[in-house]
Amino acid sequence: xxxxxxxxxxxxxxxxxxxxxxxxxxxxxxxxxxxxxxxxxxxxxxxxxxxxxxxxxxxxxxxxxxxxxxxxxxxxxxxxxxxxxxxxxxxxxxxxxxxxxxxxxxxxxxxxxxxxxxxxxxxxxxxxxxxxxxxxxxxxxxxxxxxxxxxxxxxxxxxxxxxxxxxxxxxxxxxxxxxxxxxxxxxxxxxxxxxxxxxxxxxxxxxxxxxxxxxxxxxxxxxxxxxxxxxxxxxxxxxxxxxxxxxxxxxxxxxxxxxxxxxxxxxxxxxxxxxxxxxxxxxxxxxxxxxxxx
Length: 294
Fold this sequence. Notes:
By secondary structure, the protein is mainly α. Helix content is 77%, strand content 0%. It has 14 helices and no strands. The model has no long low-confidence stretch (mean pLDDT 86). The chain crosses the membrane at residues 27-49, 61-80, 92-113, 120-137, 143-164, 171-193, 205-224, 236-256, 262-286.
């Protein structure tokens, strides 16, 4: 289930690129997050009926949900905006790998919150940064505008994960997810009304990309993640989900006729290696190496 979720999210970068053939970035984000929020309503109803979500009749429940949704949704809006606008100026493969740096950045930012960070995180971060250099930095030591936006977005994706981690213990996760999607959609629509021109014809033409990015990427993949992580170790889950970056590259090649040179492929490989290293404690690797076979 986790591998399927990673594949769905990876190919979601393709849908996001294709959708902007007909819609501008903020309009596309607004619509896809509205669809994503609506797709979670049946799941919320099901969990409430099964008694998995308690206290929905209390004022305190909705007060906490509002605060959490505003906090997480605001950060989500910034991260998604950087990602969507950045996709106008870079490839789906680059966007996928650079966005995936949030896996390394989360424990680094956690230092501010006094979270412990192991040596594997710093090693993984170093390897990933070297990979980012080969993927995005040119011979003149400049980074493309689109890749820079994706890098800024990765920082906010990491902040978003920490925010969700903070509020998820206070609010039912699926309610928090639905609320933050609605906040992100509303903020995107406000910006779109001021900066963009959206037509009904454009929305109709982008319906396929919107359906995938909203219904499949959010509704289906989120549900798969929630169900799967009940039976998977968090570190193992993070490693599998990091393969989203690989599927983004595959999707770019298959559906967008993108190509990666040997330098970029080497950089992608290093970035993926760094993400994997950051999730596996070095003591675990040493123990596994010296463990005698049964």
